[in-house]
Amino acid sequence: MVAKSLGPAQLLDYEKINLRGVILEEGSPTAHVAIVARALNLPIIGRIRGACDRIADGDLLIVDGDRAQVFVRPGEDVQKSFDDTIRAQAERDRHYVNLVGLPADSRDGHHVALLVNAGLQVDVEQISQSGAGGVGLFRTEIQIMMHQELPSLDHQTEMYACTLEMAAGKPITFRTLDIGGDKTLPYIETEDEENPTMGWRAIRIGLDRPMILRRQLRALIRAAKQTGAELSVMFPMITEVAEFDAAKKLLERELAAEGLPKDGGAIRVKAGAMLEVPALLYQMRALLERVDFLSVGSNDLMQFLFASDRGNPRLAGRYDTLSPAALRVFHDVAGKCALAGRPVTVCGEMAGLPLEAMALIGLGLRNLSMASPGIGPVKEMTRSLDVGSLREYMLPLLDSPERTLRGKLRSYALDHGVAV
Question: For the chain, which end, N or C, has fewer CB atoms within 10 Å of the first or last residue's CB respectively?
């Protein structure tokens, strides 16, 4: 598919069998449509100016998502080279299959939980196929966006119960609706905003339109009752502790309506927050006293930390997630969560990139959630890593004035035989 721009809901309108790749004139690697495409294992490339004018219907295209290259009407030599690349990738994939049953333990005995991000029931099938430990982030809005009206309580209950059953006892963390920005619902009236990513979205909509959030929470509770599964609910875009308190009160209200105690009783309910807004970094003590777990949405956290729109192609490479400032944030979060005894998971794009995942592990993070294709490469990296040595190397670098530590971390990996 070739288009100027595309939203994540529009991508889901196409049959996967008929969609082999996406080329956009706009967009960036961390835009929501790119995240959904990668979850569907579709190559996607943005910032290809003039693509709609230069590519005609029926043109043969080669879309190399790994290297961000598009070949229009390629010759036989290019096609052969690309076929060779595909065969080599298939061989690497077969290698990763051999790792499915092995633990993601480092050479010095540190266990890392590797989880998948999901938004559709088909994604949950990747748990067993990839050897993941569960779903660290289930984006509930993706299923909801496929409907022209808000699904009924019974319909949502059926969706979530089916998802829990497909997980076969593996844990799933459900994120409540994260809509707004480029993820819109046709039946929720919104106004044009100059900066929608920092506007009326996620938990802000949930608290302002509590009927939508309460219906979803009731459906999740009923699904857990039906399946006997533990229920983990995560509230997105929490900016201050008061927002989490308000959201948790709605959860407790729906538990009471279902005749259950505040902690869920027999179905075991956990409530957590997604750390995406830097203001929450300065409220960690109060927050960690209230949550059962914390998840770090690295995509939004980094764009807000650097005041850099993740959807703006001009800024896509301007700031690095492996800069000392960014890594200091992850180090501090990991330390505070460890002291409070609260599990923390990184579930942004960083978690699925071997070099970035290596850095996160070195900073003390042990739960990483990613698109399923990242499980094999990250597990191979983890099994080749000495965490103690890496941590000793990394900590002094956090005070570095350098723009990025990417080069030094890559050199460390090469020097120590870490598979990145």
Answer: N
Render the burial of 45-56: b for 16+ CB within 10 Å, e for the rest. Answer: bbebeebeeebe
Helix axes 210-227, 153-166, angle to 10 degrees: 40
Q: How many residues does the chain have?
A: 420
Q: Strand runs (DSSP E) across 65-171, as ranges? A: 69-72, 113-118, 135-139
Indicate the pTM of the whole model: 0.83
CATH number of 104-415: 3.20.20.60
CA atoms within 13 A on the CB side of 370: 24
118/419 Cα distance (integer angstroms): 26
The sign of the dihedral angle between the CA atoms of 137, 139, 143, 144 is positive
Rounded Cα distance between 6 and 162, Å, is 29
Distance, in Å, from the CA atom of 153 to the CA atom of 200, rounded to the nearest integer, reads: 24
- The 10 Å Cβ neighbour count of residue 316 is 18
At the second CATH level, the architecture of 2-94 is 3-Layer(bba) Sandwich (3.50)
Query: Of 402, 417, 301, 280, which Cα lies nearest the Cα of 351?
Result: 301
Q: Which two tokens stand for residue 23?
A: 């080329």
Is residue 371 within 8 A of residue 39, CB to CB? The reply is: yes
pLDDT of 37 reads 72
- The pLDDT assigned to 88 comes to 63
Strands 293-296 and 113-118, bridge-based pairing:
unpaired
pLDDT at 82: 64
Which tokens go with 244?
């989490």
Question: pLDDT tens for residues 319-338?
Answer: 899 999 999 999 999 999 99
- Whole-number Cα distances in Å, 192 to 147, 180, 195, 196: 22, 11, 9, 8
Q: Where are the domains of the chain?
A: 2-94, 104-415
Tell me the chain's radius of gyration from C-alpha atoms. 21
Rounded Cα distance between 420 and 404, Å, is: 17
Residue 120 is predicted with a pLDDT of: 82
Residues (pLDDT < 70) of the chain are 1, 4-18, 27-36, 38-41, 47, 65-68, 76-91, 181-184, 186-187, 189-191
Sign of the CA dihedral with 254 first, then 257, 263, and 269 last: negative
